[in-house]
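[job 4471] stage=fold_predict status=RUNNING
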Amino acid sequence: MGKNKKKGASRIEKATAKREKKIAQRIKKDIGKIGEPEVSTIVAHIEAKNKAKVKVVETKIDNPSRRSNFSFVPHPDKDEIILFGGEFHNGKNTIMYNDLIFYNISHNTWTLVDAPGAPPSRSSHSAVSVAVDNGQLWIFGGEFASPSEYQFYHYNDLWVFSLKNRNWTKVMAEGGPCARSGHRMVLSKRHLVLFGGFQDNTHNYQYFNDLYAFSLADYKWKTIKTSGQAPSPRSGCQMFAMEDGRIIIYGGYYKEKVKKDYDKGTILIDMFVLTPEKGDTDCSNYRWSKVKQAGSLPTARCSLSGSPITGHNKAYLFGGVYDEEHGEDDLTSTFYNDLYMLDVEQNTPTWRLISVKEQPNKLDSEVAQCLVNSETPTPRSHSGLAFKHNTLFVYGGLVEKGSKSLTLNDFYSLDTKKLKKWNMICSDDILKTVTSDCSSDDSMSTDDSSESDESDESSSDGQMDTD
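[job 4471] inference complete, writing structure tokens
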């Protein structure tokens, strides 16, 4: 019987390989018809072009162009926030970014830093800033799409940017995670700890719940050994490293194939704690525990933004979207702009809804879309959230109206000590257009050719899928 099972498995593997080969041949034939090079060739070209640059050019800009799925992290030492990458859909195609932009909080200025050897354009990557060697920015993974949006490319590369010397280095280290996007990465005990994510190659996809650690001491990857109940595979979760060594995983998203041409998505609202085993000092052994949550829990949603509160076992979470499916082709999206604090000081993680003036907390109808409070970030998903000096910053993101997707570039701050009101640092003209004409789908159009002109050379080489 064992032999029969092996033969059966062998036949399945051969059939799968044959099917994959046919799909690959069809894709190659299709991209040949539109005259597009293979996506790996495009990515290699972008990386080579960036590597050929020899000097650092710093340029003051008014503010970053509209985008989503970018990284947005505080500088480890200076009074700055660091933005990298992201994507923008202009109504016709998706523009990818690999620009590195610094926001100076004290002077309210943005600086674009074009440095040699930059990573290829991407979105849905993870970034962590550390104080090592006078400050570093680490970036792993993410995704890229070809100009036709027919080919997708997921990265498994690791990059470090020296905040002092202003140069990029691609770190070559074996044994790391496979290519993915939508994963999360945090700093814990001088290690970059990475969890989850997904990979999509246009005809198949896979979600992950594996766990890796990269040592900042010896630049080596290792797979973390765990015990207990692990989270299910997912992407887009929230991940926070606590001061006491614990790591929190909350929520996320995955989809599964229900029929041949129908995939059903599921939003997760569970929470897990990753605790170092007794005596562990190098992120080698952890224990997973699924935990209960207390307080004012957020409603089910995904693509919300999170930022830890430095020096405390707490974090802020903002916005997000809930997609409700009505059959195979009907989807209703509800966007949020509520702000929560997650407190993990106690044994039971506790949520608190933060009240900042009176504001709508979701966007689920055209009437609600018209009620734009200029002093409050409008409902959105995939935005940037960063905490620095008791101030919370929100930049960009996505909202939708019908089948139209609107990418934002407004910018807000909130004094978390006073919690009196949001401060609008930069407004968004598209939001004003939406307010003046909420009945027209055209008022939400993102077909803005000026955005294409603003992108750097490498950005125009590719496009991106939204994670």
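[job 4471] summary: The chain has five helices and 32 strands.
[job 4471] exit 0
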